[in-house]
Amino acid sequence: MNPAGLLQASLELDPRGGGIYERVCDRTWWGHDAMFGGYVEALMLRAMVDELADPAMVPQSISAHFLRPFSDGLFRCEVTVERRGRTMANLSVRAYSAGKLSGLAIANFGLRRSVLEFFDQSPPPEMTPPGEDEQPSDRTFVPTHDHYDFYPRIGTFERGQGISRVGGWLRQRHPGPVDAYLMFVLSDVWMPAAYHRWTVSAPAVSVDITTHFRAVFPRLDLDPAAPLFVELTTTGSFGGFVDEDVAIWSATGELLSQSRQMRFIHAPSTPSP
Known about the structure:
- Strands 1, 2, 3, 4, 5, 6, 7, 8, 9, 10, 11, 12 and 13 form a 13-stranded antiparallel beta sheet that branches.
- The chain has one domain: Acyl-CoA thioesterase, double hotdog domain (Porin, Beta Barrel).
- The protein is 11% helix and 38% strand.
- The protein is mostly beta strands and 273 residues long.
């Protein structure tokens, strides 16, 4: 195993020049009949980080839109540095799968500064981390789930519970750094909150995801083998789409990232958009 961890080893890209990056992807990070959305997001960010090539400029936020499913095989992205200033930079990505434009993303990078800081939000759920004798859930739904141990604390993995808030602890089975790429995967890997409201099986796939990084990554002070707490909430399902908000916390109660996504609901016998 690469000492950087499974995820980080799966993000290595081949630069082709002119802002173009490629990788041949297998099904290590597979979701609902397509590449896992959180992994695709991580690939797009990795391409932007490589193109910017400025460690002092760290990612602040990224918004990604998925136009069509990403298949295994050749992943290609075209990165543009839209603006590079003294304290901020803005980059965009056009990502291709099977030769077709499949995703778009735009991200903000910046120098972190201590200016008028405050934190006015509810504290994280008071949930006890898993002990040495606690066994993770044996419920898995897509191949990507095999890379993590799940310890439910709010709700379970059963449908039709009538709740809109779920979550628990996640632990890497192939530990790598606690970084921005990991935040993407963890914010998209838990069973969607809406599934706990529905009594029927209907996949809800990502249409767009916006992520805000509250910490500066990578967090070398956090043990890669330690669990992180993921909390998901959904407001409602309207017109075939359902929203989802995700917060990720460290075991010490530090807010690491926040994200919001919209999911497209696949009804039985309904084709993809």
